[in-house]
């Protein structure tokens, strides 16, 4: 399998790269023009603040940024399929899912500026904190989903489900396989959403697997589906189906969203060192936002005024995102010790006092005490 392939005969697709609406015998969805416009707006706004995050890192305002460029359809489709009672477990790239769960994009900045581990409440948002350790969130999600079942929150239309997000590289981690084992043997309401963006940093997909990733689900005894991850309609339809299966006690389900990472793995990475420009150019023709834009123009009479309005809104969001970053206060150094243990620890307290005492030694002194002015 090569990164520039079309994903194979089993690929679920409802909107072609040319913007043509097609049907699928098992997965389809009926959306109004207004709903399609909302999905377009979601993707444009998410891409805009993602690009701003990239720029802020380059300008020294963030320690790192993890871009999602090219993966907007997979994330928005899956994110909009979730209900308020569901739980999502992200890795560190799910800015689009965060948007769908109601987080303001500015709440993501502290992680990448190094001032907090996440400022939102996972329970009230239904969105867990970002997970940096590759694949670890899959185990957390499996445990949460098992708890949903043990609490009797599955089995009917009002049931709950859990969705966990990870990349193709994470499928080589033991945590992901263990999550599939635990999820399957306990029939957990767990949707494992793999964004196969073709590259695990610099390692291509063929270094991760000999078979398509979605086929791995068969080894654990639950269904696996490959969806066009650049098609927001297909991503939404398949995610809704998978979550509904889990709500009714028929989980887990593995979704492989076949997409492409259009930018670097993170801002510390240089993808030109390991992939060809021809590959990137081929995937630009499958851009998730452009295909929906074309469809809206051709089939739903979207005019330039609508697109200008969305663009203006995205620019306003980017400006607010940027201004918030520049005005973020520096946290007190003692804060790093405040959330280590629930109860005070003598060892941590001693370490805190030692550090703060050391830093106090650098407090501003009168010029004479510093050797005078030269």
UniProtKB/TrEMBL annotation:
Dehydrogenase E1 component domain boundaries: 41-315
Listed SUPFAM superfamilies: Thiamin diphosphate-binding fold (THDP-binding) (SSF52518)
Enzyme class: oxidoreductase
Alphabetized Gene3D superfamilies for the sequence: 3.40.50.970
E.C. numbers: 1.2.4.1
InterPro entries on file: Alpha-ketoacid_DH_E1_comp, DH_E1, PdhA/BkdA, THDP-binding
Domain of life, source organism: Bacteria
UniProt cross-references to Pfam families, sorted A to Z: E1_dh
Protein name: Pyruvate dehydrogenase E1 component alpha subunit
CDD domains, A to Z: TPP_E1_PDC_ADC_BCADC
Biological processes annotated in GO: branched-chain amino acid catabolic process
UniProt entry tagged with the keyword Manganese: no
Cofactor section: thiamine diphosphate
Entries under NCBIfam families matching the protein: PDH_E1_alph_x
UniProt KW Oxidoreductase keyword: yes
GO molecular function: magnesium ion binding; pyruvate dehydrogenase (acetyl-transferring) activity
Swiss-Prot/TrEMBL keywords: Oxidoreductase, Pyruvate, Thiamine pyrophosphate
